[in-house]
Write a structure and sequence with these properties.
By secondary structure, the chain is of the alpha/beta class. The protein is 31% helix and 25% strand. The strands form two sheets. The protein has a six-stranded parallel sheet with strand order 3-2-1-4-5-6, sandwiched between helices. A five-stranded antiparallel sheet has the order 7-8-11-9-10. Helix 5 links the parallel strand 5 and strand 6. The chain is globular and about 55 Å long.
Length: 218
């Protein structure tokens, strides 16, 4: 079983942890704020650990030496950079993904060898530039140095997915539905989820499958 350490228990870290658990990953979610930690632990249980992912002793306690994936997903670029550097330089981890909150810091992460990055601001700018009209699929952003895209699938009343159960839909094999936004609230879908008009699905797909997904949805 693959083991992933996620640093930062905000919304990104939380939903990523939930999604990876559902994909049979072993997960450790590190959160340094005690109050946030308690809330997360009440929901996710023992996968949540109270500690600062910038500290080597905490990373070691979390079992980083056997982690196949490390994701630094805090709201602070400096903390994400330090955590990535620690993970790579001190513990020799290879697959490291960083959240970059300020796009101006992207070059710094690049120069320090952090090749896989997600930038929320860039994703929003991409969304604004694409969303001129209401289209079924909107590209939210690309995981840097990879071929994985995050996409938004908007279901209107004419969508063939409305009324269908997730387990009955033959999505392209490479597509992963990680969230459903309904009435302004996000939820993690399972096989029993039935899609409704005005649902917004968030999915991860390989870039080369974008056209296939569009044909499937439309």
């Amino acid at each position: 079983m693959d083991y992933a350490i996620i640093i930062g228990g905000g919304k990104i870290g939380y939903y990523l942890a939930r999604s990876l658990i559902n994909r049979n990953y072993e997960v450790c979610l590190l959160e340094r704020d005690p109050a946030t930690y308690r809330k997360l632990a009440a929901d996710l249980g023992d996968v949540v650990m109270n500690g600062d992912g910038c500290e080597p002793v905490v990373l070691k306690s979390a079992g980083i030496e056997r982690a196949s994936l490390v994701v630094a997903a805090t709201g602070e670029d400096s903390a994400n950079l330090v955590a990535c550097q620690m993970s790579r330089s001190c513990f020799g981890r290879v697959r490291i993904i960083a959240r970059v909150n300020n796009p101006d810091n992207g070059d710094l992460f690049e120069k320090l060898g952090i090749r896989e990055r997600i930038n929320g601001t860039s994703a929003i700018l991409d969304l604004v530039s694409q969303k001129v009209g209401r289209t079924p699929i909107v590209m939210l952003g690309v995981l840097e140095r990879s071929n994985i895209e995050a996409v938004e699938i908007i279901l209107d009343e004419t969508s063939p997915l409305v009324g269908a159960c997730l387990s009955d839909i033959q999505f392209p094999r490479e597509a992963l539905i990680i969230s459903v936004v309904r009435d302004g609230a996000a939820m993690l879908p399972d096989g029993e989820t039935i899609f409704a008009a005005d649902d917004v699905l968030i999915a991860l797909i390989p870039r080369e499958w974008e056209a296939t997904l569009r044909e499937f949805i439309v």
